[in-house]
From TrEMBL:
Record region (NMP): 30-59
Higher taxonomy: Bacteria, Bacillati, Actinomycetota, Actinomycetes, Propionibacteriales
PROSITE patterns associated with the record: ADENYLATE_KINASE
Compartment annotation: Cytoplasm
Binding residues annotated for ATP, in chain numbering: 10-15, 127, 172
Pfam families: ADK
Species in which this protein is naturally found: Naumannella halotolerans
Protein name: Adenylate kinase
Domain notes: Consists of three domains, a large central CORE domain and two small peripheral domains, NMPbind and LID, which undergo movements during catalysis. The LID domain closes over the site of phosphoryl transfer upon ATP binding. Assembling and dissambling the active center during each catalytic cycle provides an effective means to prevent ATP hydrolysis.
Sequence similarity: Belongs to the adenylate kinase family.
Gene3D superfamilies: P-loop containing nucleotide triphosphate hydrolases
């Protein structure tokens, strides 16, 4: 299985990605996690992206594309993967297209977790209390929602036109949503 999971910040992508990856025995690759690990370890990349992430904006396409291209070339991704939080811009869609073409691979489905803005903002505020993520401040949450609507939501049309988009209602318990994703993917065969 070669999958993407998309949806607004706070829709539960990361949590669901782990469950799906386990179910299909594929690695869940989160660009956000890769960036956070670099920030934590104060690598040159981490120092570069720290401020951008805290503001709620997007890291540059070139860096992000390179990280994903390198990661997809690793052995554990050869038989499948789930990309969580990538692509987020049209330039990233094009970069992913060419990486996959180069590897002779194609996507099986693009899962879109749907949730309305009020709900996701409330969830992020709650996560801020629990996890204290640096980009879960009120201002950064607002910027992230706006950036998503402007830069990333249009990508859903691209994948819908390709017949790859699977829309799933992201409201409910982790298990409920997980079940919905599993049945939607099963239906596609
Ligand atoms: P996430 O954990 O997916 O919500 O990502 C957290 C932050 O990492 C985002 O708000 C961006 O600053 C950065 N980031 C993650 N993935 C990407 C991407 N594909 N393109 C640009 N920036 C990204």
């Amino acid at each position: 299985m070669r999958l993407l999971i998309m949806g607004p910040p706070g829709a539960g992508k990361g949590t669901q990605a782990k469950g799906i990856a386990e179910r299909y025995g594929i690695p869940a690759i989160s660009t956000g996690d890769i960036f956070r690990a670099n920030v934590k370890n104060k690598t040159p990349l981490g120092l570069e992206v720290d401020r951008i992430m805290k503001s709620g904006g997007y890291v540059g396409d070139d860096i992000t594309n390179q990280i994903v291209a390198d990661r997809l070339a690793e052995g554990d991704a050869a038989n499948g993967f789930l990309l969580d939080g990538y692509p987020r811009t049209l330039a990233q869609v094009e970069a992913l297209d060419s990486v996959l073409e180069g590897l002779g691979q194609s996507l099986d489905a693009v899962i879109c977790l749907e949730a309305d803005t009020d709900e996701v903002v409330a969830r992020l505020a709650k996560r801020a209390e629990i996890e204290g993520r640096a980009d879960d401040t009120e201002e950064a949450i607002r910027v992230r929602q706006e950036t998503y609507v402007k830069e990333t939501a249009p990508l859903l049309d691209v994948y819908a036109k390709r017949g790859q988009l699977v829309r799933v209602n992201g409201l409910g318990s982790v298990d409920e949503v997980g079940q919905r994703i599993a049945s939607a993917l099963d239906e596609r065969g």
